[in-house]
Amino acid sequence: MSCVEVGIIGFGLAGAVFHAPLIDAQPRMRVAAVVTGSAERAERARAAYPGVRIVPDADALFADPAGLDLIVVASPNDTHVPLALRALEAGVATVVDKPFALTGADAEILVAAAEAARVPLTVFQNRRWDGDFLTVRALIAQGRLGEVRRFESRFERWRPVSKGSWREVGAAEQGAGVLLDLGPHLVDQALALFGPVASVYCELARRRAEVRTDDDVFLALTHRDGVRSHLWAGAVTPMLGPRFRVLGSEAGYQVRGLDPQEQALRDGRVPGETGWGAVDSEHWGVLGADPDPTPHPTSPGDYPAFYAGVAAAILDGAPVPVDPREAVHTARVLDAARRSAESGRVVTL
Hints:
Layout (H helix, E strand, L loop, with lengths): L3 E6 L3 H12 L4 E7 L3 H10 L4 E3 L2 H6 L6 E4 L6 H10 L3 E5 L6 H14 L3 E4 L6 H11 L6 E9 L9 H4 L8 H4 L1 H12 L2 E9 L10 E8 L4 E7 L9 E5 L3 E4 L5 H6 L18 E4 L5 E3 L7 H13 L7 H20 L3 E2 L1
Parallel strand pairs: 1-2, 1-4, 2-3, 4-5, 5-6, 7-10
Antiparallel strand pairs: 7-11, 8-9, 8-15, 9-10, 11-12, 12-13, 13-14
Helix pairs in contact: 4-5, 5-12, 9-12
């Protein structure tokens, strides 16, 4: 095998904007099949990826998965586990969009299925390759902050009226709500930096009348190494906080705004092109201590690295870019967050 033939289940925002362009940018991968029941989305897929096979539903795909080396599950949240299980049972390497699963127990089932099938399984935690996150990771590794004591991370929006998508107005059992939309990114990044969590405290709120689940989230994690992570996600934040604020014994680092790669993908730019992921100097963060922190360059973001890693896992036997066992711990933390919000108490893991 010299090229990974990829089937994508779902061609909405996740499949069409995030996964397909990143796959297409990999010289050792090809978008071979797209599952969609929408005629309009099917035409978009054909126009973007000549020769792609359009499949009307997942049943049709799994009736004939021959020729596919990778299946990407980019469908609604509540379908992630059942579709990923079918892919693994078919013996096909699998990428699952976040959230990996709606519960930690279901996440464990997926990992066990992959181990039994002996095929690669990973989760699309693309924000591990945000430029600002790469910058934070490098500063910590270099000891530039001293001993990190507190990590603050936010994904906030000002959307006082929902757009009406299922992610906002759907039910909890569908995996709707901010906790399962943005929480997996926030928790995954904190775990990637500081390791396992010992305890979780969470506040969930529903601020808009038209939504059925949470749209305002605060999480406080105490890591086993003593670092405290404070994480915010919300759709109703009229004044946005810093994307990251990291406080150490010697210095701090703060940065605002969002990594530019998501908007670039939405705008149809080609992943990997010259300047991809670069951040202009006026949007750099600051490093140091008051009263005179100084601007610090933001590392270029690198979403293409995810599928480069997937290709290497399938073709070269390399490790997958995100270990699915790490996604299990993320799911367990989110389980604990829900229990904490219901009880108003800290939950120990």
